[in-house]
Amino acid sequence: MPGLFIPPQRAILNAVKPSQQDEAGGISMSMQLLGTALGMAVSSAVYAMTRDFSAVFVSNAVVVGAVLVIALLATERRAVVQAAQT
Questions:
Q1: DSSP class per residue in 18-81
Q2: Would the pTM of this model clear 0.85, i.e. be above it?
């Protein structure tokens, strides 16, 4: 599990000024906990409705896929904006 949390945390802390690292770390940890809570809530709701673990895995895969697409689009948009500014 450390491989899932430590690299993103390092990337976030390296991207901000040293004076802002405490705030960035707190925000990052809060978002990780919020994501965990929401993921458990959605998974529990899907299981309660279907009583089928495969439905839980499929719903989680759909959510992860959607998040990856959104992240990819946001990253591309940011690169285009930075290229336009230079």
A1: GGGHHHHHHHHHHHHHHHHHHHHHHHHHHHHHH--HHHHHHHHHHHHHHHHHHHHHHHHHHHHH
A2: no
